[in-house]
Design goal:
By secondary structure, the protein is α/β, with parallel strands linked by helices. It is built from 6 helices and 9 strands, in the order αβββααβαβαββββα.
Length: 162
């Protein structure tokens, strides 16, 4: 039974599956409830490992600068296992304008199958959830030290919006 749990936590959620609902607080302490957005708009979740790390810092700075590329398609949020307080300090220090959700208990990364138990963090991944509440697109980055391809994410969103 332990193997089944480990696989569930580390096997990315399948395209076509119902997106696991969740509630997490952002860097301002505001609650984000996935269920409130379903049926209204597409939701894009950018999972990343850690605030303050070199790749995540660069990637989130680029993400803030390119935010308009994604918000035109739907609701956007970034998720890591860092605390609300860490997110707030990082956002202020780096001038980040997008929502940073705190998954300190790793419950969301585990329910989406993006948990890395050996490092106790989540993988670098993008999950797009359609208005119908189903996972429409998932991309887990094979090399966590490299940024995701924003053009690829935007193309996936454009294809889904047709």
């Amino acid at each position: 039974m332990g193997t089944q749990v480990a696989n569930q936590e580390t096997m990315p959620v399948a395209v076509g599956a119902a997106a696991p609902d969740f509630r997490l607080n952002d860097q301002d302490g505001k609650e984000f409830h996935l269920g409130e957005h379903l049926g209204k708009k597409t939701v894009v979740l950018f999972f990343y490992p850690l605030d303050w790390s070199p790749t995540c810092s660069k990637e989130n700075a680029c993400f803030t600068q390119s935010l308009t590329r994604f918000v035109k398609f739907g609701e956007v949020a970034a998720i890591s296992s860092d605390s609300v307080y860490c997110h707030r300090a990082w956002a202020e220090a780096r001038g980040l304008k997008h929502r940073l959700l705190s998954d300190m208990h790793r419950s969301v990364s585990k329910s989406y199958g993006l948990y890395l138990p050996q490092a106790n963090i989540n993988q670098r991944a993008t999950v797009i959830i359609g208005r119908d509440g189903k996972v429409a697109w998932v991309k887990v980055e094979a090399d966590m030290t490299k940024e995701r391809d924003y053009d690829e994410v935007e193309a996936a969103l454009a294809k889904l919006s047709k």
